[in-house]
Amino acid sequence: MAGNYDDSNRGALFNNKRKEKDTHPDFTGKGNYAGTDFEVSGWKKKDRNGNPYISLSFKEPYRKPEQMDDIRDDF
Questions:
Q1: What is the distance between the alpha carbons of residues 16 and 11, in angstroms, rounded to a whole number?
Q2: Nearby residues of 20 by Cβ (< 8 Å), 6 or more positions away
Q3: Is the four-CA dihedral 8, 9, 13, 19 of positive or negative sign?
Q4: 60 and 38 in contact (C-beta within 8 Å)?
Q5: What is the pTM of this model?
Q6: Cβ–Cβ < 8 Å for 31, 40
Q7: Is 43 exposed, middle or buried (0-12, 13-18, 19+ CB in 10 A)?
Q8: Contact 44, 23 (CB under 8 A)
Q9: How far apart are CA 56 and CA 41, in angstroms?
Q10: What ranges in 1-75 are assigned the alpha helix state H?
């Protein structure tokens, strides 16, 4: 069946089309490890010998704050 596959322990990075500063990642994407979803960022770098590599960072996905429909003071 199309679309029914296990995405555990996988991820993907894409070129960051919104990069405006050198500090912004060159790549952004999403990944999953052990059932936990992450946002993934990657930067093109070179080691001390000039060999290219990609430095990665992982963080929890952005979640919108829950809206407070009914704000009450219980004083």
A1: 15
A2: none
A3: positive
A4: yes
A5: 0.74
A6: yes
A7: middle
A8: no
A9: 6
A10: none
The pLDDT score that the predictor gives to residue 6 is 83
Give tens-digit pLDDT for 36-65.
Answer: 999 999 999 999 999 999 999 999 998 888
Comparing C-alpha atoms, which of 45, 10, 9 is closest to residue 25?
45
Place of tokens 């990665």: 56
Taking CA atoms, 49 is separated from 29, 56, 59, 62, in Å, by 28, 19, 29, 36
Q: Hey, what amino acid is at 70?
A: D
Domain edges within the chain: 11-59
Cβ–Cβ under 8 Å, residues 22 and 28:
no
pLDDT tens digits for range 17-40:
999 999 999 999 999 999 999 999
Looking at residue 65, what is its pLDDT? 84
